[in-house]
Amino acid sequence: MLGKLIARRKAEAEEELRRHEEEERNREREAKDHTPSVISLGQVWVDIMMDVDSLPASGGFTVADAAHPAIGGSYRVLDAVSRMGVPAEHAGVIGNGVWASMIRKAYEEDGIVHVGPSRLDVDSGFRLVFHDGDGRKTFVAHYGAEARGDEHTFDTLEPGAGDVVHISGNTLLDHTAAGIDEFMDRAGSDPRKRPYHLVINPTNTLKLVNDHLLEDLVLARPIWSCNRQEATTLAERLGIALDEGDTLTVGGGFDKAMNALCDALGNTLRAPLIVRAGARGAWVREPGGDVLHVEGYPTKGVHTRSAGSCHTGAMCAMLAKGWSLADAVNIANAAASIAIQRSHAGVPVCPSADEAIQLAGVDPESPSESPSSH
C-alpha cells in the first residue's frame, strides 16, 4: 500500500515538473516571437491652441490670430514612439464623439493601436490653450472619457518581454488613478522580476497625487523621467532636503545643483532617474551608481510647446529596442533637438530613429541592454 502511494506521488511530481517545463518552453517561444512595444497608460485629449495678444478680462472679448487643433496628452509620447520605428499602443480610455473621432483618426494615420477601453456614452475631453504675446500659456480643460476609468481599466493589460509601459502624471489625478494603482500592485516591487520596463513621466501635477498612490509608485521602483521642476516637486513630496544655496547660476552652479538633485532623489527612489534640462541635455542616475550628465544638442527651436513628450517617447522607444538607459537618453536628447527645429503649429515633431542616432553619434548596431536589468 505504501509503495503504491509513493509511486503515485512520484508520478504526480513528475507530471507537475513536465507541465512546468512545458510552460517555460511556451514562454520562451512567445518571447522570441514577441516584438517589444511601448504601451502608454496615459490620457489623450484634443488641444485647441490659440494665439492671442492678451487674455481679456472677465466678460471681455478678444480675437485669436490663429487656432490649431492638435491631439495632446500621452498621444505625443506615442507619436514619438511610432516615428522612432517601435510599435505604439494606448491602453487608456477613449470616448465617442467629435474629439474622440479626431483621436482615432490620428491613431490610424500614425500607426498607433488603441488597446484600452472605449466609452460609448461620453466624448473624449479637450483643452483650450491660449498663447499670449508675452509667451505665457493659459489652459482651460474639459475632462471626458479619458478621466473616467476605474480600478479595472488596465485589468487585461499583460506586457510582454521587452515591452515598455509608460505612465504619465495626467492619469494620477482622477478616477483612472485607481486603475494605475491596481496595475502597480500587479507590477510588484522588484524590477528584476518584471520582463518589461516601467517608465513614469510624472508631470508637475505630482504635487496633487495622494500619498497612498505616490507610495505605491515609489515602491514599484520604475524608471523616473522628469524635467527639473518635476524632479524638485517629487523631492519635496518625499521630504528630501535640497541645498538651493548656489542653484542654477551660469557659472557652474547649475551643474552642481543638478548633480545634487539627482543624487539625493535617486538615492531615495532606489530606481533609475532621468532629469531633463532642455539644451543642456539630461542627468541620469542608476541605483548604486554615480550621476551621469548626458550632454544635449543645442539648436534654435521654432516650438511653443515642450519637447518633453518627444524626449520621453524616444527614450521609451530606444529601451524597447534594447539600448542601455544612458544611450537611450542620449538618442532622446538628439531626437528632442531635431524635433524643436521642425515643429508643426508649435508642437515639436519627433524625427526617425536613424536621424536621432546619427546626430547622437552612436553605433546603430550597439543595443545590448536586457529589459530585466532595471
From TrEMBL:
| Superkingdom of origin | Bacteria
Its GO CC terms?
cytosol
Q: Per the record, which residues fall in region Disordered?
A: 1-34
Q: Which Pfam families does the protein's record reference?
A: PfkB
Q: Which UniProt keywords apply?
A: Kinase, Transferase
Is Kinase found in the keyword set?
Answer: yes
Q: Which GO terms describe its molecular function?
A: kinase activity
Skewed-composition ranges (Basic and acidic residues)? 9-34
UniProt keyword Protease present: no
Domain (Carbohydrate kinase PfkB) spans 38-347
Return the protein name.
Sugar kinase
